[in-house]
Every structure is written in C-alpha cells, then in structure tokens.
Amino acid sequence: MRFGDILRLCRQNLWRRKSRTILTVLGVIVGCCSIVLMVSLGQGINEQNEKMLKSMGDLSIVTVYTNGYAGPMGGGGSSEMGDTKLDDKAVESFRAMSGVSGVTPMMNFPYNVTARAGAGGRYLHDYVQVMGIDMTQLDQMGYKLVGGEKPVKKDQVLAGEWFAYGFMDTLKNGEQRTSTRGGQYSSCTFNQATGQCEEDQDEDPFFDPLATQISLTTGTNYQGDQYTMNMSGGGGGTGGAGGASGSAAGQSENVTLDVRASGIVAGDYNKGYATSDGLVMDLQALKELAAKVDPAAAKKATAYDQVLVKAADLKSVPEVESQIKALGYETSSYEDMRKSLEEQSRAIQLILGGIGAVSLLVAAIGIANTMVMSVTERTREIGIMKALGCYVRDIRVMFLAEAGAIGFFGGLIGCVLSGLISLGINVVGALYAGGMSGGMSGGMVSGAGGGSGDHTGGGTSIWTILWQAIVGGENVTRYSVIPWWLFLFAVLFSTLIGVLFGFGPANKAVRIPALDAIKNSE
Hints:
Elements: H1 3-16, H2 18-55, E1 61-65, H3 88-95, E2 100-108, E3 113-117, E4 123-125, E5 130-133, E6 145-148, E7 156-160, E8 168-169, E9 175-176, E10 188-191, E11 196-199, E12 213-218, H4 226-231, E13 255-265, H5 274-277, E14 279-282, H6 283-293, H7 295-298, E15 306-311, H8 317-326, E16 330-332, H9 335-377, H10 379-387, H11 392-432, H12 439-447, H13 462-471, H14 484-510, H15 514-519
Parallel strand pairs: 5-14, 7-13
Antiparallel strand pairs: 1-15, 1-16, 2-5, 2-15, 3-4, 3-12, 4-8, 6-13, 7-14, 8-9, 10-11, 12-13
C-alpha cells in the first residue's frame, strides 16, 4: 500500500467519526496550550530577570577588597593576615591571570568636595563624589563615553553621565534642572487639552560640562559650601561662597583645583557611583590632589580601596574570582545573584511545565481511548484488509498515522491559540500594569476615569503596543514570552505523544487473526 493511500484512509477514518475526533483533538489543544503558556510565563520571568541584571551594569566586573579594609585612601587597607595588600604589585598579579581583560585600582576621594561652574561660580554642586582610576585601562575595563573623549592632560577629568544635573543655581534660590536619567525616573503629566498623559522630558542642564571649566574646593576639615549650609539651616562653615579657605584654629587650608571635563562617562554603578553623578579622575592626579590636601597621609604607603577586575566574559567570572580568592583576597560580583536567578527561573519553568504536562497527559489518554474504540469498531475492516494481502506494517502505520494526526493538528492549533493568549496577556499588561513604554501612564489614567478612554497607552498606538507585545524591546516588559523553539517543540511533542499512545491500539489491530476478524459481525 502506498503512503498516499495510507494518508487518504487516515483522513477518511478520522472524518468518519467527526464528533469523537474533534473532541479528542480539543483535548490535545487544551493540553498543548497549557504547557506552552506555562512555560511562556517562566520565560517571561527569565526575561525580566535578565533585564534587571543588565540594568545593574557590567556583570563581568569583579570587585576585589581585603578583610581589613580601612577606608578610602587609608594606609591600612590590608587584611588581618598582613600579607594581602591591594597595592600595585597585587594589581599586576591580577592582570597576569587568565580570563582577565582589564584591571584598575579604584580610589574614592575621602574628603568633601564642592564643584562650582559658570560666571562667578554661579552654579554649585556640593558633596561631589570624586573617584580615581587608571585611565590607561579605560577601554579594557569597558568604560563607555556618551560624549567627548578620554582625558590626556592632568587637569582633565571625566564627568558622570548625570553630573551636570547635580548643580543648583545660586542666583535663583537653588533651582535645579530635572532629568529622567534615561527613563529610570520617567513619569508623565496629564494634559487636559489632549486628554493624554505626556511623558516628562529631560531639561537642558545649566551648562555644557564639556565646554565649561569646573572649580573644585576641598580640604581635610572642609564641611561643604556655605550656601548649602545656609539652605539647610547650618552655619559657620569653613568654605565661603567661592570656596574660600578656612582659617580657624585647628583647621587646614582648603585646596582649590580647576579642571575640565574632556568626556562624559556612561553611568554604571558596578564601575563606581561617580560614573553616574560624580567625577572620574586619573589615579595619579587624584593622588597628587590628596597630597595637597593632607601631605602627611600621602607619605604613607598607598593601599587601594578596591580593585576592579573585568573578566573576559560572563563565563570567566567564576574562574577569575576563584583565582583571586586563592591569593587571600575577598571578591564580590553579581555572579551569585545571576546564578540564583537562573536557578529560580529554571525551577519555575519546570514547575509550570509540569502543570501543563498533566493536561497533555490527560489528552494523550484520550487519544489512546479513541484509537482503542476505532480498532474495536473496524475489526471486520482489518480482517478484509489482511485477506486482500495488505501488509501488517501498513495496518500498523495507518493507525499510528491517525493517532499522530490527532496529536499534530491538536498541537498546531494549540500553538496558534497559545500565541494569541500570550499576546493578549502582554497587551493587557501594557495597558493596565505599565508593562510597555507609555503603557502604564495610559492605563492608569484611563483607569482613574480621567483619560481619553481609548486605552492606547498614553498616546502609544495600539499597533505599536501589539508589536512590542510580540517582539519585546529595551524598555518593554513582557509577561509571557514564547520563543520559536517552544512552538516547534510543542507541535513535535504533541505528535510524538499521539504516536506513542496510539502504538498499543495499532499493535492490537495487527494481532487480530484475519479469519476471526472477517467473522466479526460488529
């Protein structure tokens, strides 16, 4: 019997009992939908975890420190063991390790710093965080510039990505410019005229940090600028409005340093908080500034606060950490958190997938029941086929094809239905839970009764929301994610389940003696 004839008989036999076939396929559809949707929810959790980790910065950075960490610029930054100091020798040993692409010491300036800019020092930024790194390792460490270029002179620094927004206008009662910080603090304001919630936009800073000289004031006893103290109700500070030096008994002279920002570094807390709101200086320049502020402390042997080690890739992080710990140092990274989140996500997917698999198992039992009934009803037909010389394997293949077809079409329709339900979950999340960009504002406003009522996500078109729900995006949160391989797996698995559970009835059919089958009157 040709394979085409077997498929034709398969279609005829399935369609002969339409109601039973449709109900059996429906069971497979429900089972397939259950397992696909359950796994897709787990994939959605996994995607959200990945985005959360990416928002934390460079995950390949390993921070090295010692047990006896004595504070910024201190001379006692060594462990209780006394032989694990974070000095230049330790830095060179880290650079020689396998799997390491870059190493830089990191020093946080330990004294209060005030920055002034503009004519007459009009713009004020108090308590600026200043950090020193090895500028020769800037590219190897993965520091990214969003503007300008890396410093090449001693008086050049890198400004943090949002450094300019920390300034206040002293001539306008401390007014400051606002920023959403790349959407991290984005919100929206409802516009009565348009009936939509419009996203807030970044205001321009008071000045361009790349084109403006910045004056820094600091000292060992420097408590901050007098203007800031007056605003907070304090008084008697050592710093004047322009950074005048303190002269009270027991207080050291304040130091003023003029610098220029040659570039703006992208904010990454894993590489230092100063990359966001402060200033990043060359390590040697920071040491010279510290020597001017406190010559006595500068004479002590330098032991760094921390050392940042960048692994070549995420897979190398555990190996790099183990090598560093073997030398007696302590390390910290997001590797443990990443592994923990991956394990949790995997466990959730297994649990959800198991729940969905129960429904598919019930559907598989339904397939077996349908095929057993089909064999019983067609006993005489099987006998006639054998009497006419039909091969046993053809009869087996015919019943297996019927069972596989039920599983295949049930899985195919189930995948289509799962895709539509997944799309609906993401769209609802966009409109009412703020999953998509702009979705939260539109959903909340409409839900509060003050919106336009079209539920289009604060001006975002429904087509854009649908597209985001399908493909995702940088600022898009999807609650249900179905990768292409899950669709393929679901169809193949449903087909395989149909064939496996149809194998028993098919064997029963071929074991029926031809003479007995022909005599069967049923």
